[in-house]
Design goal:
There is one protein chain. This protein is α/β, with parallel strands linked by helices. It is globular, with a radius of gyration of 28 Å. The longest helix has 17 residues. It contains 27 helices and 36 strands. It is 26% helix and 18% strand. It binds FE2/S2 (inorganic) cluster (FES). The site of FE2/S2 (inorganic) cluster has 14 residues, from loops.
């Protein structure tokens, strides 16, 4: 227990932190710039000065930097002493000497830590009358604007970019009064987390270029708590809306998951919500055009089709909410409901769920990953598939490892071992990396498990690999905490089994605290797996449609052209009489539909998704599109589907709000009962008030539609949450709630306002972090080692097998529709091993012809030194490269010039 005295008041605190951290945790207002809870202290700005006294009799005291001094027991400090207040005011004046007075045109204004500190320190009068220092601004790519004149040299940007995220293309140059933060030359920032500069920078040096294009001040935006939809990690976000467009995405603090940072895909991919070609009202296809329908017309039309259907097949989606998938299952019946993923993906998902539920091995959160000593990564290119998780792996390894130290494993320091098909962005911190086919990687995994516990199945390895496996086994056994990571994206169930075997073996035979993370493919894959008892694959559905067993297909939020080859989908969809699609994007599948329901995207709907840990989280409607245009009929898919079911069965509507569908879902699937506790009931109020989506300063609310009608439109009602589309309500950080639309507190307009929402700085929110774990892992007595089927495999069998390459920008379905992301997507390609390329007589950029599953592709060649011979790398998920090609053997490959 540590007691500190601040301005005559005694506080009991955690004495492990510095005084600044401690004062902020006590909710005292103490100005600062260069310190950041995730980056620590460097003492460069001198703004956090406090007066320190020797004892309670000392009236003189001396000025110290609170971020550089520990909160030791019985320390006496003052924040309010006139001398120290004057000191802070003078420091601010000094920092402002070169800062332009450009708030009216600066994108940061209203969201600016510098502005807040200016007000907090009371520096109001500018006395400097000379020329200000000016800098050249650089082009840093489509995401970030650069305005170096605003820099106050706090070094936060470089400490995040270089020290935290390990980016190496942003540096600090110059000397004395002429310091420059930028790149050696203009160019796109290469690091996958560059967007965090926008929130890290306390002034407007780095601002969100995507937001500037439809610029609105923070106080004029409408926010809601949301969940990033672009991988299975489930980072918490705050999308901001104005005039019916999502304008930006801010990080929403979550103490256990994303903490203060998002990846660039999560931050900048929102543009697909604003696309003009989205279906915004129900439509029916006529021979040469589509016609707009109202709700009654589409209900009547679809009900007639469904009533007369021979057999209906319903295809769900791992990018849709649990509620929507449940509603589809209710409509078509469990026997006709398909998860919307390939059979092999479904097998891997079942495997992941089985291990998650029965292995008794804990799946850590992102924050917990940072405390693991030794990490083994099998076959997942984390930076491309689950980037925020890769950033946590970096933190785990960063302060513990010395990549150039050959004896590191003997010293039992932190270490990362990884296997993949090719080099990855985590190679720079890996103590050992190995490139092989998925089967060969699994073989190493099985051998490692056997080394750790001889009850695990044995596989043979080369002598060199055996030696390395011995080293990894020893390091894992000696670690205090060891973590195994694998997942579904490599397309190999053997890799998942091998990872589970290693974790089980380690748990059986060592003292090490063992963690296991198995990453599913999409944001709600785990939720869908928990919902479904159906084991029929999507291929079975396609077969039934091809054979004429079924004549009616209902597809919800899923583009089948992304999963199966065009030739197959064209054939299937033209053969059947009725294709009904519910989606919020104008996909290729929608192009084949004769009935289109306009679904709401994540920004216009409320729903639940379940992340890789089994944590259910709720995302909330950010705005109501029909407020801006009454023609828009965007409903949650579950609302459309329930209406259909009621009309079909001539029953009364039962689901008026999300609580009703959740209740029905739990009754049907008790495994999901935790989703009810993810969020309070829709009727819950805090001291009689709803939680606001808008700040108190929101302007123009009553005149936003005055160009259309001078009569003020009533604000929309939200039946699905305790949030209101208004500024009248509560945003009090201390009241009992976990869902926070945006970070704002009197005097704190920037993201630093999260200080006020945390029980202690960098900890959980006052009333806990959002989300409920649905899966409490428990060792099942029947759960044991998986048998290996890789023994006997050799490279012969893998010749010309397709393996997936993933890209942060391009591989994920929704983000690849966003125009700014498209600018960063590589073009499609085929990756060949050097030797294979030579044998084929092709070089980089040569066009080759590839045939697989009766598709003929013409693609330019890329050559890799690491991809094993016999494997063919394709960026699956890119337009024209369907996911089902993962693991397929090709028919032939040829240099088209040799044909
Ligand atoms: Fe302490 Fe900058 S915050 S010196």
């Amino acid at each position: 227990m540590t007691i500190i005295h601040v301005d005559g008041t005694q506080y009991v605190v955690d004495g492990s932190k510095n005084l600044l951290h401690t004062c902020l945790s006590l909710k005292l207002d103490l100005p600062y710039f260069c310190w950041h809870p995730a980056l620590g202290s460097v003492g460069s700005c001198r703004l956090c000065a406090v007066k320190r006294y020797h004892n309670d009799q000392d009236c003189q005291g001396s000025i110290i930097m609170s971020c550089m001094t520990r909160a030791i027991d019985n320390i006496f400090i003052s924040l309010e002493d006139p001398e120290v207040k004057e000191f802070r005011r003078n420091i601010l004046e000094l920092l402002m000497i070169n800062h332009p007075h450009d708030c009216p045109v600066c994108e940061e204004a209203g969201n600016c830590h510098l502005q807040d500190m200016l007000v907090m320190t009371g520096h109001y009068k500018r006395r400097y009358r000379f020329n200000k220092r000016t800098h050249y601004n650089q082009y840093l790519g489509p995401f970030i604007s650069h305005e170096m004149n605003r820099c106050i040299v706090c070094y936060r940007c470089i400490r995040f970019y270089k020290d935290y995220a390990h980016g190496n293309d942003l540096g600090v140059y110059g000397i004395h009064n002429n310091i420059y933060f930028g790149r050696v030359k203009d160019g796109i920032l290469e690091n996958e987390f560059s967007g965090n500069l926008v929130e890290i920078c306390p002034t407007g040096v780095f601002t969100d270029k995507t937001a500037s294009q439809q610029y609105t001040r923070k106080w004029d935006l409408q926010f809601a708590p949301s969940i990033c939809a672009h991988c299975s990690v489930g980072c918490n976000t705050s999308p901001g809306e104005r005039y019916g467009n999502i304008v930006k995405i801010d990080n929403r603090y979550h103490g256990a998951i994303n903490h203060y940072f998002l990846c660039d895909r999560g931050r900048f991919s929102y543009g697909y919500v604003n696309l003009l070609d989205r279906p915004r009202w129900p439509q029916a296809l006529r021979p040469d055009h589509t016609v707009e329908l109202n709700t009654l017309e589409i209900m009547n039309k679809t009900t007639t089709i469904l009533k007369n259907a021979k057999k209906i097949i319903g295809i769900g989606s791992a990018r849709a909410s649990l509620e929507s998938n449940f509603a589809l299952r209710e409509l078509v019946g469990e026997e006709n409901f398909y998860l919307g993923m390939t059979g092999s993906e479904q097998t891997r998902l079942s495997l992941i769920l089985k291990i998650l539920c029965q292995s008794g091995i804990y799946s850590p959160t992102l924050r917990e990953i940072e405390n693991y000593d030794v990490i083994l990564l099998l076959g997942e290119d984390l930076t491309q598939t689950s980037p925020r998780l890769a950033l946590s792996v970096r933190q785990a390894v960063k302060n513990k490892s010395h990549p150039e130290d050959d004896h590191q494993n003997e010293k039992n320091l932190g270490a990362l071992f990884l296997t993949n098909i090719d080099s990855t962005r985590l190679d720079d911190i890996a103590l050992w990396k190995y490139y092989a086919s998925p089967a060969e990687q699994a073989r190493i995994g099985y051998a490692l498990a056997h080394k750790l516990d001889s009850n695990s199945p044995k596989v043979s390895l080369s002598i060199t690999l055996s030696d390395q496996v011995n080293v990894i086994a020893k390091t894992l056994q000696k670690a205090k905490k060891s973590l195994i990571i694998s997942g579904s994206n490599a397309g190999s169930d053997e890799l998942i089994k091998a990872a589970a075997n290693i974790a089980t073996a380690l748990k059986n035979t060592s003292e090490s605290e063992v963690g296991l993370i198995l990453l599913p493919a999409e944001v709600n894959s785990i939720g869908l797996g928990l919902l479904s008892r159906n084991i029929k694959s999507l291929e079975t559905a396609i077969e039934q449609l091809q054979n004429g067993v079924s004549d009616t297909l209902l597809i919800m939020e899923n583009d089948l052209y992304r999963i199966f080859p065009h030739n197959i989908m064209d054939e299937v969809l033209t053969k059947i009489s009725n294709v009904i699609v519910i989606d919020h994007q104008n996909t290729k599948t929608i192009g084949k539909a004769n009935i289109i329901f306009s679904a709401a995207s994540f920004a216009e709907s409320t729903g639940t998704v379940v992340n890789y840990e089994g944590r259910a989280q709720r995302f909330f409607k950010v705005y109501d599109p029909s407020y801006y245009d009454s023609r828009f009929q965007l409903k949650e898919s579950w609302r459309w589907l329930h209406l259909l079911k009621c009309q079909l069965t001539t029953s009364n509507i039962k689901w008026f709000n999300i609580d009703h569908v959740i209740q029905a879902c739990i009754e049907s699937c008790p495994k999901l009962k935790g989703i009810k506790d993810v969020c309070p009931d829709v009727k819950v109020r805090i001291h009689g008030q709803k939680i606001v989506r808008k700040s108190k300063q929101y302007s123009g609310g009553s005149s936003i539609l005055a160009n259309i009608n001078v009569h003020e439109k009533p604000i929309p009602q939200d039946p699905d949450s305790m949030l209101t589309f208004s500024r009248e309500g509560t945003n009090n950080p201390f009241v009992e709630r976990q869902h926070i639309s945006f970070a704002w507190y009197p005097g704190w307009n920037s993201p630093q306002a999260w200080n006020k929402f945390q029980n202690k700085i960098g900890g959980t929110l006052h009333h806990g972090d959002p989300g409920q774990r649905l899966i409490k892992t428990k060792k099942d007595k029947n759960f044991s080692f998986f048998e290996s089927s890789v023994e006997g495999c050799n490279n012969e069998t893998e010749i010309l097998q397709i393996v997936p390459y993933y890209h942060l920008f391009g591989s994920e379905e929704m983000s690849q529709r966003t125009p700014v992301i498209q600018k960063c997507m590589p073009s499609t390609y085929i990756m060949l091993n050097n030797i294979d390329a030579n044998q084929l007589g092709v070089r980089v950029k040569t066009i080759v012809e590839l045939s697989v599953m009766n598709m003929v592709l013409h693609l330019p060649v890329k050559v890799s030194d690491h991809l094993p011979s016999g494997l063919i790398g394709l960026p699956l998920g890119f337009p024209g490269l369907p996911l089902c090609l993962n693991g397929k053997k090709i028919d032939y490959i040829t240099n088209i010039h040799h044909k």
